[in-house]
Amino acid sequence: MPTCRHCYSVYPRGQFIHGIGPLSQVCVRCGLDKELVTKDEAASYYSKSIANSRFSAIARRWAPLVWLGIFWTFWILYLTDVSPWNWFTLAILILGTLGTPLYIFVFSSNYQATMARLTPDYERPEGH
Ligand SMILES: [Zn+2]
Q1: From the CA of 35, how far away is ligand 1's center (Å)?
Q2: How many whole angstroms from 9 Cα to the centroid of ligand 1?
Q3: How many helices (H) and strands (E) in the chain?
Q4: Ligand 1 center to residue 125 CA distance, Å?
Q5: Which of 44, 45, 61, 53 is nearest to 121 (CA)?
Q6: What is the pLDDT of residues 100-125, one digit of tens each?
Q7: CA of 125: how far to CAs of 17, 29, 62, 63, 115, in Å?
Q8: What is the pTM of this model?
Q9: What are the tens digits of pLDDT across the range 71-100?
């Protein structure tokens, strides 16, 4: 993958603007920041709202795992000695631990569709 000559970041080819001279090897973000291209020309640019929406989709997908870790830590630290609540919450935690991978698997196509919707269209130009 190529490296941007302004910010030294490595991106896929689709995240670069096209042209020769000052336009070569420049990512879309640097191209917009340095006003080398307009927003219409940089079709693959992830705007602030698209980036926030993608982050939100990622957070929604992986949040159950984070909550499971928090709940297991809470259970181990505070609830192991509290009878009978330790057994009730343990049963709920085991159900959640078994159900979370199923939940992630079942909604994986939904997640992929959301990410595809939130990916800017990019047409590879001739010769690239
Ligand atoms: Zn750059």
Answers
A1: 12
A2: 6
A3: 4, 0
A4: 20
A5: 44
A6: 999 999 999 999 999 999 988 777 76
A7: 10, 19, 35, 38, 23
A8: 0.74
A9: 999 999 999 999 888 999 999 999 999 999
